[in-house]
Design a protein that fits this description.
By secondary structure, this protein is an alpha+beta fold. The protein contains four helices and four strands.
Length: 115
């Protein structure tokens, strides 16, 4: 029995890339500005994907479900929220063995502080 959201299956793979390192100001912006808008599940997904990059591995959505202790529906909803706010771009590919999603993380904006 396969549970899917749209066409996303637990067995579908994903890998994550980023072209930045989070600064202290960006961490603060994520927790104080973005989290109230996108919610804790979406922020948790973003931070999990951000910190998984060090492993350079392809994982399954089932692994992500176990890691976050969340359903595929919750993860999918969280993903759409971080996409909508500009923190993630998602690309879907098919190969001979499985569907693969490339998650490209984007850096958060920070407020300008005038003194």
């Amino acid at each position: 029995m396969h549970h899917s959201i749209g066409k996303v299956l637990p067995a579908d793979g994903y890998r994550t890339t980023k072209m930045f390192d989070l600064s202290d100001e960006q961490y603060q912006a994520l927790y104080q500005l973005y989290q109230p808008i996108i919610g804790i599940e979406a922020l948790s997904l973003y931070m999990t994907l951000y910190h998984q990059i060090a492993f350079h591995d392809r994982h399954s959505h089932h692994y992500l479900m176990q890691l976050l202790n969340q359903s595929l529906t919750t993860i999918y909803d969280a993903r759409t929220k971080i996409e909508a706010i500009g923190l993630l771009e998602t690309y879907r590919y098919e190969d001979d063995q499985q569907t693969l999603y490339d998650f490209h993380l984007k850096s958060p904006m920070t407020p300008v502080v005038y003194e």
